[in-house]
Write a structure and sequence with these properties.
The structure is a single chain. Helices cover about 35% and strands about 20% of the residues. The chain is of the alpha/beta class and about 270 residues long. It has 2 domains: about 100 residues, Rossmann fold, CATH 3.40.50; about 140 residues, Rossmann fold. A 6-stranded parallel beta sheet has the order 10-9-8-11-12-13. It has a 5-stranded parallel beta sheet with strand order 2-1-3-6-7, covered by helices on one side. Helix 1 crosses helix 9, helix 3 crosses helix 4 and helix 3 runs antiparallel to helix 9. The radius of gyration is 20 Å and the shape is elongated. The termini are close together.
C-alpha cells in the first residue's frame, strides 16, 4: 500500500503528508488545500482528518469551502471496499473504517503535545505561578498521566481523580494525592484540568470550587463540566480541544503518520 489519499486536515496533516513522502509513499491530496476532482483514483487507503468533521463538513480549514461528507464521496468516487482512516464519524458510511480515536498508540503520542499545550494555556490565563499551585487532574488516561508529570515537574501540587482503584494506586505511588471521581471535591484547588468526556463536574461539584479556580477543558465534546453552571458562577473555563495540531503541528503530524503507517502494515 504505497499510494494514499489525504482528504482535508490542517497543518498537522501537512506534516503527516511530508513524513509519509519521506517514507516512500505516493500521496494524493484533496481539500488540502485545493478542492478539485481526483483523476487518479488508484490509491490503497484514505486518511481523513482527526477530528474528522466540523459543523457537518470535512475538517478542512486550509481550503476555502470545506465539503460535506456527501460532497467528498461524490467528488472522489471512492471504492466502497477501500480502507479509510480518520476521526470519529456519526453514521459512518464506510465499510472498512479505522477510528483513530480508539488507537492507544496515537493517544500516547498525542498526550505529550496535549500536556504541554495545557500547561501553556494555564500559564497564559492565570496570574499565579505553576510552582506551588494546587492542581486537580480529572481522569488518569494517557493525557492525565502525562499532564500530572508535567505539572509536577514544574513544582505544582498534584491531586488525581480517577475512577479505577488501580489508577489511584499508580498515582499515589508517584507521590500524588488521589480521589475517586465518584467523590469529587474542588475546595482549595486553583486549577482543575478535565480529561474525561463525561460530565463529572456537575452543578453540585462546581458550587464547591473556589471563585478564583481556573478550569481547563481537554476532553472531547461534550466535555466534563456543566457549562451553564460554571458561567453562572463566573468561573474561568479555558477550552483546549485538539491541542496537538495547534501547539505542535509538526510533531503531531509525524505522530499521526507513524500511526497510519502502522495501521497500513497490519492490513
Amino acid at each position: 500500500m504505497r499510494k494514499i489519499l489525504f482528504a482535508g486536515g490542517d497543518r498537522r496533516t501537512l506534516s503527516a503528508v511530508e513524513y509519509m513522502k519521506k517514507q516512500g509513499f505516493s500521496i494524493v491530496t484533496y481539500a488540502l488545500p485545493h478542492r478539485r476532482p481526483i483523476e487518479d483514483r488508484n490509491f490503497s487507503a484514505v486518511v481523513l482528518p482527526f477530528p474528522c468533521l466540523k459543523q457537518g463538513r470535512l475538517n478542512a480549514p486550509l481550503t476555502e469551502t470545506p465539503p460535506t461528507l456527501e460532497e467528498f464521496l461524490s467528488e472522489t468516487e471512492l471504492d466502497p471496499s477501500i480502507t479509510v482512516i480518520g476521526g470519529p464519524i456519526p453514521d459512518n458510511p464506510f465499510s472498512h473504517y479505522v477510528d483513530l480515536s480508539q488507537r492507544e498508540d496515537l493517544k500516547l503520542r498525542n498526550a505529550v503535545p496535549t500536556a504541554e499545550g495545557a500547561l501553556d494555556l494555564l500559564i497564559r490565563h492565570t496570574d499565579r505561578t505553576v510552582f506551588g499551585m494546587d492542581c486537580l487532574i480529572v481522569g488518569y488516561g494517557a493525557v492525565g498521566k502525562r499532564l500530572s508529570t508535567v505539572l509536577s515537574s514544574m513544582g505544582a501540587s498534584i491531586t488525581v481523580a480517577a475512577r479505577k482503584a488501580q489508577d489511584r494506586l499508580d498515582a499515589g505511588l508517584r507521590g500524588w494525592r488521589t480521589m475517586d471521581t465518584k467523590e469529587l471535591y474542588l475546595q482549595g484547588f486553583q486549577a482543575i484540568f478535565n480529561t474525561v468526556p463525561k460530565v463529572l463536574l456537575t452543578e453540585s461539584v462546581l458550587r464547591e470550587s473556589e471563585p478564583y479556580a481556573v478550569f481547563v477543558e481537554l476532553a472531547s465534546p461534550p466535555g466534563g463540566l456543566d457549562r451553564s453552571c460554571a458561567q453562572a458562577l463566573s468561573r474561568t473555563v479555558i477550552d483546549g480541544p485538539a491541542l496537538p495540531g495547534k501547539v505542535a503541528p509538526v510533531t503531531a503530524g509525524e505522530d499521526l503518520a507513524k500511526t497510519v503507517i502502522h495501521i497500513l502494515k497490519t492490513l
